[in-house]
Fold this protein.
Amino acid sequence: MLIAAGACVLVTGGLLFAITTLRRQVADLAAVVDELRRQTVPLVADAHRVVDQAATEMQRIDAVLESTESVHATVDSASRLAYRAFANPVVKVLAIRAGAAGGVRQLRARPTATTRSRTRGTTPTAGSGSGSGSRGRGR
């Protein structure tokens, strides 16, 4: 019985030592959890603020993109309208200009031919179109 009583004392002493060690470890763990809580709670609050700001900025960017798309559509339709409005008149003006330039070249070329025929002593033929009509202009 004495051996059993000694064994119980030793086991009780070991359990008390284990309980004391576990209490210290739990106290250390509680301190670490408190420190972690003190550091993470502000970080989580900051993260919430950043997420809210990002959501607000995304809404603003979405509004800007919608406005940009609207402006793009307006400019595109205005561009098409301007093209339709100015394309035909511009083509006509360019055609008139090209025709006028060709006419001016022909008018400049005719007096030169008439002048050459006069210097040689020949008269232009009636089919050339530069007969008496060019003399009536004072040349």
